[in-house]
Amino acid sequence: MTNFEFYSPTKIYFGLNRETEVGTIIKQYGFHKILLHYGKSSIKKTGLYDKVIASLKSNNIEYVELAGVEPNPKIDMVRTGCELAKGEKVEMILAVGGGSVIDSSKAIACGTCVDFDPWPVGVILTISAAGSELSNSCVITNSEKMIKNGFNSDLVRPLFAIMNPALTFTVSKYQTACGIVDIMMHTMERYFVEEDSINFTDEIAFGLLKAVIKAGKKVMENPNDFETRASLMLASSFSHNGLTGMGTKMYFTVHRLEHVLSGTYDNVSHGAGLAVLFPAWAKWVYPKLETKFLRFALEVMKVEKQDTNDKTIMAAINKLESFYKELGMPTRFKDLKIDEKAVDELIKKSTNIPSFIKLDSRDIEMIYKNAL
Questions:
Q1: In what order do the strands lie in the sheet with 62-66?
Q2: Sign of torsion, CA 356 186 259 144?
Q3: How far apart are CA 257 and CA 247, in angstroms?
């Protein structure tokens, strides 16, 4: 265990119809003018947009809008948002959407006030995935350079997050599955490091992973199961606010490798890229983390103990891959229509990837080739 700080200041408003309270919530904080930031048409199709606008108007909250956030949010949108926020002199940003919208809002907040404290960001969550609603991270894509990168700072943790699981009923099965993979990865990346962690934290991590696997199977059968969607939404938030990694150092090696992948191929969803790369990384690294992988195999994946630890661990990795396939996720580059020729380009871009053991180009090549 290493020394650590734990900080999670975001206030959660959880439950049915809490989004209708957004104007009252913003008013309580003393803000009078906001930037309303969201994706394309989904919040209008579902009626969420009308609810938000009605709540803002009934509380005399002025607003300006910036729509059109794409998956793998782009730096061009952030720049537009900064100019709009400065010109309109807004006091906070309200992100209505998932991780892409929230990350874009965080970046706008920082970029607008570069000489001052970042503006506060509030959230109405519409998808269980990135955990950005409680996290200190923000990831943005530069399409011109085909680079996807981010930064971490407690200053970008949202002020509040409104979380109504019913708002995720309309999320497609594919994007729900991408979210499930991402949720699990935020905890697995914290668990699979070289430090001996606190058993208390490990038990929280294992409980979260088992809950997500159980909910993941159920939500594919019944997308409108409120309790199941609630489990995924809470897991999304608490998998990425630091709780499941207390006492360990965070590297997020697989996330960084995936940022190279989806930064190069914008059509690749983040969760889909993780589903391909985590098993590939695990097959390469598990001999160096044998104890942790063995415990994961027995307690989380529930595989039977075999005659060698290697066989037990590989059985667990294969079972995880099967779960991803059950969700409809890719598990090989070919599923993403990426061939072997692309690996050389990915290797060239994968420089300075953080890892508890130094990664050279041969190691990275082995991980990417495992994904073939």
A1: 11-14, 160-163, 121-125, 92-97, 33-38, 62-66
A2: negative
A3: 24
Angle between helices 361-370 and 341-349 (to 10 degrees): 140
pLDDT of residue 90: 95
| Beta strand pairing call for 121-125 and 137-142 | unpaired
**Among candidates 41, 90, 101, 82, which has minimal Cα distance to 63?**
90
Give yes or no for a contact between 337 and 330, defined as CB atoms under 8 angstroms apart: no
In Å, how far are 133, 256, 320 from 358, measured between CA atoms? 32, 14, 26
180, two tokens? 């499930």
For 256-273, the pLDDT digits (tens) are: 999 999 999 999 999 999
pTM: 0.94
Question: pLDDT tens digits, residue range 24-75?
Answer: 999 999 999 999 999 998 999 999 999 999 999 999 999 999 999 999 999 9
Contact by Cβ (8 Å): 99, 128: no
Written as one letter, the residue type at 72 is N
Sign of the C-alpha dihedral computed for residues 261, 264, 267 and 269 taken in this order: positive
The residue among 243, 190, 232 whose CA lies nearest residue 8 is: 243
CB-based contacts of 339-347 (< 8 A; 24+ apart in sequence) = 340/369, 340/372, 342/264, 342/265, 343/368, 343/369, 343/372, 345/264, 346/260, 346/261, 346/264
Q: With bands split at pLDDT 50, 70 and 90, how would you rate the model's confidence at 98?
A: very high
Torsion angle (degrees, nearest 10) of CA 312, 318, 322, 327: 100
Q: How far is CA 19 from CA 45, 64, 98, 102, 193, in A?
A: 16, 18, 14, 16, 38
Cα-flanking dihedrals φ and ψ of residue 131, to 5°? 70, 10
> Which pair of structure tokens corresponds to residue 120?
């506060």
Alpha-carbon span 33 to 28, nearest angstrom: 13
Q: In the chain, at which residue ranges do the beta strands (DSSP E only) sit? A: 11-14, 33-38, 62-66, 92-97, 121-125, 137-142, 147-152, 160-163
- Cβ atoms of 156 and 248 within 8 Å: the answer is no
Q: Which two tokens stand for residue 270?
A: 């983040």
Q: Which residue in 333, 302, 332, 299 sits closest to 315, CA to CA?
A: 302
